[in-house]
């Protein structure tokens, strides 16, 4: 495989990471920030899973008792790590959204500009 | 397909309707799950689809129902965000230049530690799914930590939003509830669908060691069936099935089952989470331990996800 | 038998306390359980540290799987010392929280408060104790989510926005750390830190390793609130419930600094100080943090905010120690970890007492409080001396080492900047003292009485520690020196 193709996954990861990060730091709407955070995290998932890929490999599950040792399997470790990271991601999202709901109830807005203004007044 | 992921992500940046952005984000997750399947990560694909297009999307929609769904368009100069983004990206591209190519069997990640799992995983733990073997046994302690991350999130959401019938009494119930009770077609479909989802959840729970899936995916599916019921028939109807104290008990029971399995190993004189001592021979002990911790994960995840959803669904615009 | 399982008990006791708090479902029993667990954790940390001092590094293999296949806990003098700091602070703050939390948090949510507090502690213990890099990430997330939730429980509505900003920056930081872990894993094939430390040698010129280093550093710096990535800290500390502020200020940033120290160990001191040379960069950033934090503290009108900016400055001191390097610099940074935890814990506990009695931490409402609450303010003044770095207080030692380390390298400008920062810290602390002692009592605190004993005793324990460890420095400075040797790879 040529170098460009072999690193293609990683560069898409970088581009997705940029998009997510850009949403988080540039958008004023708190919900939008959270959506950006999700994309940012998902891009990292792609990076890890790409690390686990092996040419001519299959999913890391022994399908028949007989073929053990003969088949090539993908690296299961990144998969395990990303399962954990997905859980961490949804947990963070839940806490963040709960905060957004409370912020809306307390300030009447979820736009960063309004919140800054309200904070300086109170 | 990867390029398409990027297109969706960029569309989300430009999209000012947050409902549309949420839908796109759900679609993004589904597509990402498909990419994971192509990269041979079926367990992860399963979880990503269930979480990204399922739970996360529902929580986002629930929030938007409360706080409004339109992003204010402001013209500000995005120079600083752009600078931050490009600096991070430049560093990453620089770092990837020395990465092993995709699929390289000689990559360090594939030649150190991983071969151990692939060679001995199925033999030592008796579990054909290597992901389950690593997740529940070799790195079982990470998974315990992961379960406590969910518990922390559940408790955090409760601390912020509270749950009706839990003594918090901060909001009135009943009227104004968001539900689709008046859609007869939805009711019928939901009624047909829910038993199958539950059945499938049970299959995923108890079959995770030989196929894709496991406690986490099963817990999410189980929660999804419940959430579907709550959406179609109304949260207050759903609450007749589960009370707040019951959910709390299930959350605690699930994590305690996992942690208790670890402590039981100490009782038998082995290290924390060493399942080998649970039965006469090592492999049977591993199977017992993996079964117990996966069950703990399933119970705790389902109860916590349901709790989190209800905390959002029962919140009303004052 | 128990002795060999101390590492796991250190973390699992606090972890399990959280679901047990759910089962108890009431504030006071949950508090009692939390106190018991925090004291047991302190005993555990002391016993572990003694084990490490006697027999060298202690390891614990989870599931019986030897590292790097399984996850291992690895305790040496460095993280044994950090565990002791966290455990000691929690053993003092948790008892203190009874009255303070009852005053600031709705009674039906108190059990939730204690459940999450235990998770925060478990997360901090877990980060400090583990020898596995991904395990660091998992426990980092437990402690982070717990601290976002705890900050949001503050009474002021601004606690919510502060918690949200903390969450966004914290998650960015954690994800950067995750990227760093992925790059390191791609280059070495392992997640075990001791294994990584061996396997990165020989490929230190790899671009992947350099990028991993960059992402881990930026991520951890966000968590540590290092200048200029500190913007989340003042709000979070100012609006969190008092007990939470004291705990976070005394422990959470310390754990992040510990991770930076561990990075020196992971990549090797030669990489940091010789190959990259980062000394000048780190020292400059650290001094900017020290000076800007101290200057910003001068401008605050709220004591909690003032002390929060002082924390930004003090994190700068610890970073300065890492930047200067060597036994003196690292030793100074590490001993300052300990001393700052005691002193900053004490001043925040004192402010918590004032908030309980006066209902506000505005500087103006503190006028004449020295007469209303003499014991509270006396402890505050003692701890403030330690924060300024007056000789014969604990805070002096760390700063003295840092000055010596700077002189050793001939960097007079560092010593001069430290002198200026010291003067600034006298000024901002004086503003509080002046309000408390040299004004007629403010109407807001007209009926303020002395704080209850359950809060005064913990406060005085920390204040006394700030003096004791300044006079008898064998424990803190001795351990810090040995920990510095661990970081430099001189001692095992």
Main traits of this protein?
heterotrimer; B: 318 residues; mainly alpha; 2 domains; 13 helices; 73% helix; globular; C: 492 residues; two-stranded antiparallel ribbon; 20 helices; 2 strands
Notes on the structure:
The complex is a heterotrimer of chains A (about 120), B (about 325) and C (about 500). Chain A is about 70% helix and about 0% strand. The model of chain A has no long low-confidence stretch (mean pLDDT about 90). Chain A is mainly α and about 120 residues long. Chain A has 5 helices and no strands. The longest helix of chain A is centred in the C-terminal third of the chain and has 32 residues. Chain B folds into 2 domains: about 70 residues, no CATH class; about 180 residues. In chain B, helix 1 runs antiparallel to helix 2 and helix 10 runs parallel beside helix 13. Chain C is an all-alpha fold. Chain C has a domain of about 220 residues.
> Measured on Cα atoms, how large is the radius of gyration of chain C?
21 Å
Task: Name the strands of the widest sheet of chain C in spatial order.
Answer: 1-2
Biggest interface goes to: A-B, 86 and 100 residues
H/E order of the elements of chain C?
Answer: HHEEHHHHHHHHHHHHHHHHHH
Mean residue pLDDT of chain A: 88
Largest sheet of chain C: 2 strands, antiparallel
Strand content of chain A: under 5%
CATH architecture descriptor name of chain A: Orthogonal Bundle
What characterizes the major β-sheet of chain A?
A: none
Quickly count the helices of chain A. 5
Indicate the percent of residues in helices of chain C: over 70%
Outline of the structure:
The complex is a heterotrimer of chains A (122), B (318) and C (492). Chain A has five helices and no strands.
Summarize the SSE layout with pairings.
The complex is a heterotrimer of chains A (122), B (318) and C (492).
Chain A: H1 3-6, H2 8-26, H3 30-52, H4 76-107, H5 112-121
Helix pairs in contact in A: 2-3, 3-4
Chain B: H1 2-14, H2 18-38, H3 42-67, H4 79-96, H5 108-111, H6 114-125, H7 130-138, H8 140-161, H9 184-207, H10 215-233, H11 235-241, H12 244-267, H13 282-313
Helix pairs in contact in B: 1-2, 2-3, 3-10, 3-13, 6-7, 7-8, 7-13, 8-12, 8-13, 9-10, 10-11, 10-13, 12-13
Chain C: H1 6-24, H2 27-55, E1 58-61, E2 72-75, H3 77-104, H4 110-129, H5 133-152, H6 158-188, H7 193-200, H8 207-224, H9 233-239, H10 242-267, H11 269-275, H12 279-298, H13 303-324, H14 326-358, H15 369-372, H16 374-388, H17 394-408, H18 412-437, H19 453-471, H20 474-487
Antiparallel strand pairs in C: 1-2
Helix pairs in contact in C: 1-2, 1-4, 2-3, 2-4, 3-4, 3-10, 3-14, 3-19, 3-20, 4-5, 4-10, 5-6, 5-10, 6-8, 6-9, 8-10, 9-10, 9-13, 10-13, 10-14, 12-13, 12-18, 13-14, 13-17, 14-16, 14-17, 14-19, 14-20, 16-18, 16-19, 17-18, 17-19
């Amino acid at each position: 495989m040529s170098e460009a193709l072999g690193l293609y996954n990683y560069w898409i990861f970088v581009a997705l990471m940029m998009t997510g990060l850009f949403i988080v730091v540039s958008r004023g709407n708190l919900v939008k920030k959270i959506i950006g955070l999700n994309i940012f995290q998902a891009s990292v998932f792609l990076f890890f899973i790409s690390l686990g890929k092996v040419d001519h490999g299959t999913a890391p599950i022994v399908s028949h008792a007989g073929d053990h040792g003969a088949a090539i399997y993908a690296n299961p470790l990144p998969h395990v790590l990303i399962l954990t990271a997905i859980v961490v991601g949804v947990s963070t999202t839940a806490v963040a959204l709960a905060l957004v709901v409370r912020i809306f109830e307390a300030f009447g807005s979820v736009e960063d500009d309004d919140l800054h203004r309200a904070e300086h007044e109170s | 397909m990867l390029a398409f992921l990027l297109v969706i992500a960029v569309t989300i940046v430009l999209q000012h309707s947050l409902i549309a952005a949420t839908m796109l984000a759900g679609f993004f997750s589904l597509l990402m799950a498909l990419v994971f399947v192509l990269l041979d990560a079926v367990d992860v694909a399963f979880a990503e689809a269930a979480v990204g297009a399922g739970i996360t999307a529902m929580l986002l929609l629930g929030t938007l129902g409360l706080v409004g769904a339109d992003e204010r368009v402001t013209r500000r100069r995005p120079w600083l965000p752009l600078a931050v983004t490009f600096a991070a990206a430049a560093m990453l591209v620089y770092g990837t230049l020395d990465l092993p190519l995709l699929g390289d069997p000689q990559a360090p990640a594939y030649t150190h530690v991983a071969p151990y799992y692939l060679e001995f995983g199925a033999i030592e733990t008796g579990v054909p799914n290597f992901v389950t073997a690593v997740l529940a046994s070799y790195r079982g302690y990470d998974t315990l930590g992961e379960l406590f991350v969910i518990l922390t999130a559940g408790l955090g959401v409760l601390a912020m939003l509270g749950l009706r019938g839990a003594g918090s009494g901060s909001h009135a119930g009943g009227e104004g509830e968001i539900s689709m009770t008046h859609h007869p077609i939805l009711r019928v479909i939901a009624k047909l669908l829910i038993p199958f989802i539950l059945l499938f959840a049970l299959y995923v729970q108890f079959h995770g060691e030989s196929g894709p899936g496991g406690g986490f995916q099963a817990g999410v599916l189980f929660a999804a069936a419940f959430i579907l019921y709550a959406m179609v028939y109304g949260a207050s109807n759903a609450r007749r099935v589960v009370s707040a104290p019951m959910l709390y008990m299930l959350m605690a029971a699930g994590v305690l089952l996992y942690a208790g399995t670890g402590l039981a190993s100490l009782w038998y004189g082995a290290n924390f989470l060493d399942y080998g001592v649970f039965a006469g021979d090592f492999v049977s002990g591993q199977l017992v331990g993996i079964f117990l911790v996966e069950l703990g994960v399933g119970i705790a995840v389902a109860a916590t996800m349901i709790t989190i959803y209800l905390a959002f669904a029962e919140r009303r615009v004052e | 038998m128990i002795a060999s399982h101390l590492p796991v008990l250190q973390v699992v006791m606090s972890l399990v306390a959280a679901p047990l708090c759910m089962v108890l479902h009431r504030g006071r029993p949950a508090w009692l359980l939390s106190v018991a667990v925090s004291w047991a954790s302190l005993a555990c940390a002391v016993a572990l540290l003694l084990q490490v001092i006697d027999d060298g590094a202690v390891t614990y293999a989870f599931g019986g799987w030897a590292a790097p296949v399984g996850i291992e806990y690895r305790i040496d003098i460095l993280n044994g010392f950090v565990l002791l700091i966290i455990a000691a602070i929690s053993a003092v703050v948790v008892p203190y929280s009874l009255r303070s939390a009852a005053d600031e948090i709705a009674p039906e949510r108190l059990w939730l408060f204690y459940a999450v507090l235990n998770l925060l502690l478990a997360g901090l213990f877990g980060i400090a104790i583990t020898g596995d890099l991904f395990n660091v990430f998992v426990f980092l997330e437990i402690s982070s989510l717990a601290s976002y939730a705890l900050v949001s429980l503050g009474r002021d509505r601004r606690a919510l926005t502060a918690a949200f900003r903390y969450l966004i920056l914290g998650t960015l930081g954690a994800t950067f750390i995750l990227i760093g872990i992925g790059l390191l894993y791609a280059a070495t094939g392992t997640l075990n830190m001791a294994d990584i430390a061996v396997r990165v040698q020989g490929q230190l010129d790899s671009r992947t390793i350099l990028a991993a280093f960059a992402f881990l550093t930026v991520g951890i710096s966000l968590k540590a609130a290092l200048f200029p990535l500190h913007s989340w800290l003042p709000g979070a500390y100012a609006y969190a419930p008092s007990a939470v502020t004291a705990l976070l200020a005394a422990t959470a940033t310390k754990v992040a600094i510990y991770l930076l120290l561990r990075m020196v160990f992971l990549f090797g001191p030669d990489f940091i100080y010789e190959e990259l040379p980062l000394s000048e960069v780190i020292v400059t950033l650290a001094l900017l943090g020290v000076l800007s934090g101290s200057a910003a503290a001068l401008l605050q009108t709220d004591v909690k905010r003032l002390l929060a900016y002082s924390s930004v400055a003090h994190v700068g001191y610890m970073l300065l120690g890492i930047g200067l390097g060597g036994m003196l610099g690292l030793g100074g940074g590490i001993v300052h970890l300990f001393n700052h935890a005691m002193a900053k814990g004490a001043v925040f506990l004192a402010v918590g007492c004032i908030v309980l009695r006066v209902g506000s931490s505005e500087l103006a409402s503190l006028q004449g409080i020295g007469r209303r609450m003499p014991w509270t303010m006396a402890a505050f003044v003692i701890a403030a001396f330690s924060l300024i770095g007056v000789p014969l207080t604990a805070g002096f030692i760390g700063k003295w080492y840092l000055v010596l380390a700077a002189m050793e390298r001939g960097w007079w400008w560092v010593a001069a900047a430290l002198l200026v920062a010291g003067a600034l810290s006298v000024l901002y602390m004086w503003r509080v003292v002046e309000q408390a002692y040299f004004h007629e009592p403010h109407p807001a605190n007209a009926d303020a009485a002395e704080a209850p004993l359950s809060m005064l005793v913990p406060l005085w324990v920390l204040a006394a520690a700030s003096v004791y460890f300044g006079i008898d420095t064998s424990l803190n400075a001795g351990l810090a020196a040995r920990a510095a040797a661990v970081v430099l790879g001189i001692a095992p």
